[in-house]
Each structure stands twice: as C-alpha cells, then as structure tokens.
Amino acid sequence: MEIKKTKSTIEAILFASGEPVEVDRLSAVLEIDKATVIKLIKEIVDKFDEDDSGICIVKLDDKYQMCSKPIYSNSIRAMLDLRRHVPLSIAAMEVLAIIAYNQPVTKSFVEQIRGVDCSGTISSLIIKDLIEEKGRLDLPGRPLLYGTTLNFLKCFNISSLDELPPLPDKEIDLITEKCETMSILEGK
User: Fold this and answer.
1) Which of 25, 43, 49, 168 lies 20 to 30 angstroms, CA to CA, from 89?
2) Does the domain made of 90-186 have the CATH classification 1.10.10.10?
C-alpha cells in the first residue's frame, strides 16, 4: 500500500473508531510494522499542526485517538448545546491523585491516607470515568482495586502515567509511611 493511502487509511480508522485504537491493531489491519505505524501517525500529526487543523491525534498509552483541539472546546460545546463540565472537588482531586500515583489501590488504602470515608468520591470518579475497578485483592472480603482510565489520561492531557509530575519530597515521605502501614495491614 502506498504511503499516502496508508496515512489516509489511518486517519479514516481513527476518525471512524471514535475510541482510542491500539498501535498493534493498526499494525495488523494495515499489515505493516508498529514502528512504521507510529512514524506515519507522527507525520499526520505534523500535517494537522502545519495546516492549523481543528483536529489532532492524541497518544494514550499505546493507543491513538483522533479528537478536536482543546482551543475549540467552547465553540463545540455551544454548537452541541453541552453544559460545561463541573470541576472536580478538592476531595475528588485528592482521591484521584492517591489512586493515580499508587494504583492499583483499595478504597481502604485511599481512606487510610485521607483519614475520611471516600465511598461517595470514588463512586463519582467512576461515574466520570476517571477511575475504574482493576480487580480484587486476594484477602478476606476480596476488596476491589482501583486504577485510572484512558479518560483520565485524556482529561489531564497526558500520554501515560509516567508523565505525572513528581511528588514533593515531604509528600512522598508521608505517602511512603502510610503505604508501609497499609501494606502491613493488607498483608503485602
């Protein structure tokens, strides 16, 4: 398949999908290696930037998704008559940060660090598709484990959790101490 047609095919797949598409899947469908797929996507991204396009392609872990550029969000909301998203509360941001930096974690782990019940906050973060269940801990009661979602990466405009900013040393010491306590309590 010629390069121009392959790029057009990638654009069409990402547009039609509406969801993030794995590089492996694109590679298999197009019958080309992953490195070439990534290179072609980079060229498409560069062309969108050069043309000052209203759309872009974002990388989310090992997946790519076509979406509108953030600077056009107000116009899109007005056109679609969408309400502005309600910002997260401080409590929700704290819970989200604890989960993002320590995942997968149990609700009791989050509550131990915050010192308060987090059931409602965790439920609202699940509804907003920022966190999800990642399995169960092999302990009595089999507590749920939580981690972040691809939507979390999109909302915070990062490609992977590796792009999270480092925690200040004081906070790291406090979290490490709480983690050690929880590890002992959870039998890790």
Assistant:
1) 168
2) yes
